[in-house]
Amino acid sequence: MDQTESASPVELGRRIRTLRVKLGLKQQDLASSDISASYISLIESGKRAPSDAVLSALATKLGCSPDHLRTGRDDHALEDTRLKLSFAEMALRNGDNGEALQAFGELLAKPALLDPHMRLRARIGQATSLEKLDRIEAAIPVLEELSKDPSLAAGSDEWCRVQVALSRCYRNMGDITLGIEIGERAMARLDALGLDVTVDHIQVGATLIGSYLMRGDITRAHLLAQKLVPVAEDHGGRAGRGAVYWNAGLVALSRRQLPEALALTERALAMMADDDNLRHVAMLKMTVAWLELQSEVPDPARALELLQDAGQTLAELGTAVEQARCEICLIDANTQLGRWDEAVSHARRALGLLSSGPRVEAVGARVRIAEIHLLRGETEEGLQGLHAATRQLRHFAASYETAQEWRHLGDVWKRQGRAKEALDAYDQALQASGMPTTYDPAQALTGQQQHQS
User: Whereabouts are the TPR repeats (predicted)?
Assistant: First the structure.
């Protein structure tokens, strides 16, 4: 701990005496009906530690703050630091993530000017900025350190934010199992506090539902959503309730209950439309638009309008991957409207946004380009694109996302009458979703015959 945070009685007394002498005051000048001059002398010699009330009274007469007497921090510098911290947090809320990260870094470079709570806020802000800039590998060590901080009380708002962010970061890095473990431990810790289900449960639970869905654990996601929806109605703010309905909609989608999924996400959007987290609102609009495109009676015109709104916001506040996902939805909306040139333009923009590394979303964009070639009658180019996408998709580890892309690829092959390629893609989709191939008794019999011979 920084020595300026918790001064000893000797240091505190010396600081009071130095300031008194500098102001030309005598010990009697600091005395009052409640504080004798002799008691002032004992405090200045370090033989007595003043109470908060006495310290506050002395600070008033010395023209400074009690915090300055305790820590020696300059009051003007402290106020300036508070303003800088508020500016950094405002920049983060406004989506100026790079500017926020720089400001938090400058604050943390001068820890002596930060009290413990200010330093905690700055570290959480730093981790949040890194995550929003898609620098998740850099955000995780900061969040891990914060999660072990003994001053971070379980059940506090800051503790909840750290647990949610750490779970989400590991999930988005591809370690879905660890992300789920962190979320489940956080839920268990909240339960152990002996409280009823709280807003913190809602925040952790919403992230956990998303992780269950990514792992393909639809049943757990469904059960948790059923538990949280009534709690969100009773205790959650509009944004918290919106997050739960959003995730409940995704659960319904995974259970192929498309009308219910659309109704739930529409309700989430109505709740979150005025939320100051514009990035979340944009991503929710993207989800509603995608569901519109998947409906039995699709509404691509409305989907296009929602996606264009979302795209403008994500261009300023979203990560490259989030922007690319919006572009991929725009491919589908324009394809359904027969606007194939626009669809290809969005596909190329998505690929440009995903050029920094291998992403399964890039395969989805290439499949869609190939599909447009086929719709135009450009069969050779379309089949070449499908074969290339098939080769690329084999390099990705099994996950719910890769299973979805294999399924999409299989559907496109099937529509082309290519049964062999379609069957292979569907088989890969089943394996990626965690369903192994069945036991082949004929192979076992062949092995026994060879052994006997």
Answer: 403-436
